[in-house]
Design brief:
Layout (H helix, E strand, L loop, with lengths): L1 H4 L2 H17 L8 E13 L4 E12 L4 E2 L1 E11 L5 E14 L4 E11 L4 H7 L5 E10 L3 E4 L7 E10 L2
Antiparallel strand pairs: 1-2, 1-9, 2-4, 3-5, 4-5, 5-6, 6-7, 8-9
Length: 165
């Protein structure tokens, strides 16, 4: 009976349309984000052979100035002379955040890939795999921020903050 009602071309079009709708639907695991942030930095310490960098994004949800959900995903590297150093990916899951003091202060947990680099990776930010009340340094106002270099290194630090809700 099903074959008589829907021809193969019509069934194919329905499947393609359904896939298009599903692909276009946003993944809102914790509700719509109120803030989106991207950040990137690179730097070197002249004469030392030390270098670092990171790139990533964050979402903050559950409120405009205080919220109860969010996450960050970023990659970072630290290189030292003779090839020592590390490269890792960090995933932060926020259970609480507060932007009333001018920057995003966050509470949550961190996961690192590869896991064997959890210690050195989270030591840069947020300090441990489980963290509470850590000031991210991310400005809590929409705009593009060129923060110059970090810790005396020659390089750059850029942040883009967008309020979307």
């Amino acid at each position: 009976m099903f074959r008589r009602v829907l021809s193969r071309p019509l069934l194919g079009l329905l499947i393609v349309a359904l896939l298009g709708v599903l692909a276009a639907a946003p993944a809102q695991a914790y509700g719509p984000a109120n803030w989106q942030i991207t950040a990137a930095a690179t730097g070197t310490f002249p004469g030392t052979g030390l270098g670092f960098g990171f790139w990533g994004w964050c979402d903050f949800a559950g409120g405009v100035s205080v919220g109860n959900a969010g996450d960050c995903q970023f990659a970072q590297y630290f290189h030292a002379p003779s090839g020592s150093g590390f490269t890792c990916e960090e995933s932060l899951d926020f259970t609480n955040w507060d932007a009333t003091g001018g920057t995003f202060v966050v509470t949550g947990t961190a996961k690192v890939n590869p896991t064997r680099l959890t210690g050195p990776c989270v030591s840069i930010f947020p300090g441990s795999a489980s963290f509470s009340g850590v000031d991210s340094g991310i400005p809590a106002a929409a705009g593009h921020y060129n923060l110059g270099s970090i810790g005396g290194a020659v390089g750059e630090f850029q942040i883009q903050v967008v309020q979307i809700g």
